[in-house]
Amino acid sequence: MNLWGIDLGGTKIEGAIIDPANPDRALHRLRVPTESQHGYDHILGQISKLIASLEETSGLKRPAMIGIGTPGAIEPSTGLMKNSNTVCLNGRPLQTDISAALKVEARLANDANCFALAEATLGAARGSYVVMGLILGTGCGGGVVVDGRVIAGLHGIGGEWGHNPLCGETDPCYCGRSGCVEQVLAGPSLERYYRQQTGEAIRLPEIAQRAEAGEAAAKATLERLRHKFAEAIAVVINILDPDAVVIGGGVGNLGLLYEDATRQAVVEHVFNSEVRTAFLKPILGDSAGVFGAAMLTAR
Ligand SMILES: [Zn+2]
Predict the structure, then answer these.
(1) What distance in Å separates the CA atoms of residue 45 and residue 31, rounded to the nearest whole number?
(2) pTM over 0.70
């Protein structure tokens, strides 16, 4: 069975045809530029062009249903896009318009939800029943997958753990509140914390190297990450109790998140005497977005 997915990003649109039984690589994969400066209708045209090219290179006809992953979400009550960083998509009935343009049923989901779905069904958490996929990078997003289905939620915000508050934190957030998880755990927030300690503006990978070399401020930055992450993920575990948590994004590359000391830190915040949750590094890399989009059509 072949599944077709589209990863609609701000700079490129990627399309792939996958066989879920053989998820190591896509059967066919193509990219076109988004060229969002030319507006909404142009983007729809680029998507049509991409699907026509996929038909041509694969020799296959488009299926009755195609999955699409993109930043932002559909407001379920109106069907209109919101929260997209490609701002010309906001307020538009994107899923309906793609369906009309491609003459197929389009299923659209948030890109973090697609990441979670891909890792839950084809990737690191394959075989797990309840999976929380985190994007912990320049921001904090996430998605919940149960039995191979995305839980988008009544408001389309299922899995959005990044704007929960953390105890004692007060940094203002663009969402209008303060002390959000994202303002503490995202890469730029960690870099800001290090800069406040040292006056030095360096990137997270270098902070990690300095911590490795024993520098006190760098070690303090990462220990803070460990304990604040533990507090933040404990909220998710108390409510959802997932079998697996997959941690994507640049911060997710840091080995300390997978150490036993971090698990012990989580135990301190969870309503249980132990935490057996699997904390996993993603394995699909850049493919997760487009693979997850394709998997939207699997069931
Ligand atoms: Zn916030």
Answers:
(1) 14
(2) yes
